[in-house]
Each structure stands twice: as structure tokens, then as C-alpha cells.
Amino acid sequence: MKKIGFYFLFVVYVFVNSLYAQIVSVNIGINGLTCSACSYGTERSIRKLDFVKDLQMDLNSKTAQIQLVPDVVVDFHALAQKVVDAGFSVRHVKAKINFNEGKFIDDFIYNSNNLTILFVDVSKDKLSGEREIVFLDKDFTSAKEYKKWKVKVTELRNKGKALENIYIATF
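-> C-alpha cells emitted (171 positions)
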């Protein structure tokens, strides 16, 4: 049974590999961001990443709005780690993705340009245009939010363990 599941996952992976999506921007919520010195230090840390084109820190909402360099692979784990390295924790990671026509298979997998996303509770409808996704992995959300999704995230993580660089997300 495991062998069949793996082959199914592989076929789905190959099929959706031809889909294309452009990550437009990332919004990261930062817990503990209270002053301009904190904001500046975090901004300097995030700007060191090669895929960051520009970023605006917002102390009122405690977020960083990040514009990305086109056609450069985005490492969301490295992004979250930069926030932690600056002395803060991540409240959320959201990404705006411009999906060209593509179809999700089995409501859970999308792959494009070295980015594999396993989706929770996504319909099989065709996607097009810009959509905001919310990452659900433990490093990308609050403990309270992660607790709500933990069972589904663990299940999907186990299904996708044969794939590299996977993220769990929802709309």
C-alpha cells in the first residue's frame, strides 16, 4: 500500500511540475517587534537574503512586507530564521502567488520552480490570478495556530516526505 501511495505521489509530482507560479510578495508577522531599533535590526537581517528585492517594516501591524527578486528561488525557512536570528518569533508567513492556469490534483499538491506546496483544504478548482496563501508549518505560524492544523500538517508531511523543499499551506 505504501508503494502505491509513493507511486501516486510521484506521478502527481511529475504532472504538476509543469505548472507555473510567480511568488509576488511575502508578508511575515513578527512577534515582539515594538520599536524602530527592533524594526531596523530585523530589516537589516532580512535584506541579506539574495531573493529579497525590497521590504517595508510596519511597526503598527508588526509585519514585514517583502518584495522578491523575480525568478530567484525563495527559501521560506531562511526567511523565518532571519527573524529568529534578530531575536523575534514568527507569527505568520503569507505569500501572494500569481498562479497561471493550473490544476491541483487530489486537493493537496502543487509544484513549480523548486517550490512544492502541499495544500490543506483546497478545492480542485482551477487556479488563476493572484492568491494569498498562508503557510502552516511549525516555523511559520504561532503555536496556537499550529495546534489547530497539526494533525493535517503531520499527515501531509508524511505523504510528501519523498519530496524535497516542501511547505504546507492553505488559502
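The helical segments are 2-16, 36-47, 76-85, 143-159.
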